[in-house]
Automatic annotation (TrEMBL):
It comes from Noccaea caerulescens. Its main location: nucleus. InterPro entries: TF_MADSbox (IPR002100), TF_MADSbox_sf (IPR036879). It is found in: Nucleus. This is Agamous-like MADS-box protein AGL61. One of its GO terms (molecular function) is protein dimerization activity. PROSITE patterns: MADS_BOX_2.
Amino acid sequence: KMGRRKIKMEKVQDTNTKQVTFSKRRLGLFKKASELATLCNAEVGIVVFSPGNKPYSFGKPSFDLIAERFKNESEDSDGGEKSSGYNSRRGNGTRQEKKICKRLNSIIEEAEAEKKRGEKFQNRLESAGEERFNVPIEELTLEELKEFEAKMKKMHGGIQGNILQMKASSSLLFLSKDIK
């Protein structure tokens, strides 16, 4: 029985262990953030990127509300000028701001590329059946049905992956809508 034990704070090298560690600690971080929000009536927003560079967000009451408030307060503090959404009270805003802008611009580019991939995927989906699948399903042979099912499962997996990534990054894109 392993139970809880103290571990060294050093980078995890094994890919599988790293992913498990990230998942558990991300959930723990979000749980602590939720507790902080509940106990102190605080509004909390967190964005975390996985080792695979997937964004995960948490917000209470919601990440979008927190991000909008953060962005508006940042714009107000700059005398009404548009800002990247970052306003540091520690005096190192410029470097941090550039870093955040760079990352958000990268996410925007990824989202635009994903949108183009989605459009291509939609076009492929519309023409996926080719001519032999443009017949009533009752007229397909068992072999054709199995092939059709395999194609549909593959497309479904791709769609689910795209949906998950788009949901995770939508809150970050919300932050960057006025940056460009």
